[in-house]
């Protein structure tokens, strides 16, 4: 089984965008506050921005994704679809084998995010759980919100504080900023692109057009192109890259010397090269050389301004963090709950009884035991010949402890950090396999 190191939603974004481009016009989001601005906290899961979104009075969680141009719903039950207005059946055909995918389209919905509201919004619903990323990133995600939201506002993102500020276009003022860079945005089918330079391992510098894709937890994707001298480096490994509507996408992962965004260079950056079948399908819809994802974006505080076609970036505290693949070779996913003993209390009653021989002390004790539901995590994928694979770890193993601590005390993001932390670091896992506890030990190994 090939294994990815994160959840690469970029593939989902691309395939969904193929079908949902400019199908119909929609009314705009407006800010209800008279000041024309508001703040919104968000959650970071695998570096992806997750925000609360209310649809027809029902609060859900959405991935905020610059790489898609329509609002997509998934991970809903059949009952949940009743919250949408008059959904109609549509059929979608994507890359890969299989029958066309059945979906629903619903118009005239009221959608709110923070203090922004759209009372005539259109939503597509992917049925049947075909796309379920919640178990891989450890938080509930019901859908994706993209261009429909970004087009109306100027949005500041602060990844360190997990905070975004949303402004009406006429309210926002650009401040003088010596450390900032402004990258012009080009749009194709409502998706933003920037120009950048990549330096390959042979010292060759290439100018590339990259999709800005906040819905990808990867750093950089490049498409092989002989005319641009874009080739897979010799040091690489084959891997699973992401999910499409009707199939998975594979390719190669590697590392290149740098990605340059004007005066800022990101060195030794990790990169993925999707296979030729994917490249052919993607480029039939849009001409580009790859994409830049959340592992790059999180290194900057950013201003996303679709109206002025501008992306402003300012390095933050993440900027100098190294780019690393998962050095264990395993992908962990959330898998429901386990009942865990969380504590107990004891109470005692003291009684005195007298008899003919004197005094007898009698005690009665009662004990209350408390339990809680805690997250379960299991091994979803294993990279062949990785440290975890060589140590005997298996797909389906439930992780009970990580380096001596109960694993439910971690979230998936923290688990990924531990498994990518430092070459040579010892990892000790206590796992449950077929009802038996097994201990597995290995050391992290830098793959490239």
Q: Please, could you describe this protein's structure?
A:
With 448 residues, this protein is mostly beta strands. It contains seven helices and 29 strands. Strands 14, 15, 16, 17, 18, 19, 20 and 21 form an eight-stranded mixed beta sheet that branches. A six-stranded mixed barrel has the order 4-5-10-6-9-8. A six-stranded antiparallel beta sheet has the order 2-12-11-22-23-13, with no helix packed on it. It is globular.
Kindly report the oligomeric state of this protein: single chain
What's the alpha carbon Rg, rounded to whole Å?
Answer: 25 Å
Helix-residue proportion: under 10%
Structural class comes to: mainly beta
The stretches of 5 or more residues where confidence is low (pLDDT under 50) are 1-25, 94-98
- Average residue pLDDT: 83
SS elements, strand count: 29
Mind describing the biggest β-sheet? 8 strands, mixed
Contiguous helical run count: 7
SS strand fraction: over 45%
């Amino acid at each position: 089984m090939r294994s990815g190191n994160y959840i690469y939603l970029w593939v989902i974004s691309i395939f969904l965008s193929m079908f949902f481009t400019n199908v119909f016009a929609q009314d705009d989001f407006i800010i209800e506050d008279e000041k024309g601005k508001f703040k919104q906290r968000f959650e970071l899961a695998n570096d992806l921005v997750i925000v609360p979104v209310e649809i027809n009075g029902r609060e859900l969680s959405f991935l905020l994704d610059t790489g898609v141009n329509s609002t997509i719903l998934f991970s809903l039950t059949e009952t949940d679809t009743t919250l949408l207005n008059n959904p109609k059946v549509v059929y979608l055909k994507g890359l890969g084998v299989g029958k066309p995918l059945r979906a629903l389209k619903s118009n005239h919905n009221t959608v709110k995010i923070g203090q922004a509201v759209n009372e005539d919004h259109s939503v597509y619903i992917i049925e049947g759980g075909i796309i379920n990323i919640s178990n891989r990133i450890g938080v509930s995600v019901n859908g994706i919100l993209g261009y429909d939201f970004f087009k109306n506002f100027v949005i500041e993102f602060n990844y360190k504080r997990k905070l975004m500020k949303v402004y009406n276009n006429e309210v926002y003022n650009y401040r003088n900023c010596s450390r900032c860079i402004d990258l012009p945005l080009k749009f194709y089918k409502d998706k933003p692109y920037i120009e950048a330079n990549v330096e390959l391992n042979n010292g060759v510098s290439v100018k590339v057009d990259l999709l800005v894709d906040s819905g990808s937890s990867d750093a950089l994707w490049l498409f092989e192109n002989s005319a641009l001298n874009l080739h897979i480096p010799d040091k690489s490994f084959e891997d699973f890259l992401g999910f499409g509507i009707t199939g998975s996408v594979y390719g190669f992962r590697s590392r290149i010397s740098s990605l340059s965004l004007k005066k800022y260079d990101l060195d030794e950056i990790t990169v993925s090269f999707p296979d030729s079948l994917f490249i052919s399908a993607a480029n039939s819809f849009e001409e580009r050389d790859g994409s830049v994802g959340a592992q790059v974006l999180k290194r900057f505080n950013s201003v996303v301004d679709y109206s002025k076609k501008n992306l402003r970036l300012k390095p933050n505290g993440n900027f100098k963090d190294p780019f690393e693949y998962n050095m264990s070779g395993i992908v962990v996913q959330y898998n429901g709950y386990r009942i865990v003993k969380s504590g107990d209390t004891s109470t005692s009653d003291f009684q005195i009884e007298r008899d003919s021989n004197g005094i007898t002390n009698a005690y009665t004790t009662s004990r209350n035991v408390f339990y809680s539901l805690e997250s379960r995590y299991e091994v979803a994928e294993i990279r062949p010949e990785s440290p975890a694979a060589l140590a005997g770890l298996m797909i389906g193993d439930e992780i009970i402890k990580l380096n001596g601590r109960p694993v439910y005390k971690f979230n998936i993001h923290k688990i990924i950090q531990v498994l990518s932390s430092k070459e040579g670091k010892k990892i000790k896992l206590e796992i449950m396999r077929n009802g038996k506890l097994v201990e597995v030990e290995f050391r992290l190994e830098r793959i490239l």
